[in-house]
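Cont'd.
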Amino acid sequence: MSSKHNNHTSSAQSDELEGASQPEPNQRIWQVVAMIPEGRVATYGQIAALAGMPRHARLVGRTLALLPKGSKLPWHRVINAAGRISLRGSDSHMTQRHRLEREGIEFVGERVVLKQYRWQP
DNA sequence: TCCTTGACGGAGA
DNA sequence: ATCTCCGCCAAGG
């Protein structure tokens, strides 16, 4: 990018005013996350790239942080490039780890072995 | 307006 | 394996 314009899209739901062609970034992210199969994980950067926004890993994190509490999206299958859970709070952190282990994903210390569990579309 | 802080990541050292 | 730097970008202070 040229580091100019490309702003707007603040909160949500107002994309039909500018061409209404392709889905909003957040929506593309949700779609990709929804594709991660059970028992596999994907990294924030991986999701960003698959959503057509390479190097926007942080955007993925922000987007997932906004998900409503009972979201059906498999957000727990998204971890960082080190194979670790990025969630800060001990509650959410434990919830994510528990969900992953329940799907058969194993941890070696604090990390998932990506070589073994990374989703490869 | 500037600075800091994040559910980040890759290249170097 | 750890630590910096740097890219990226929205929210808050």
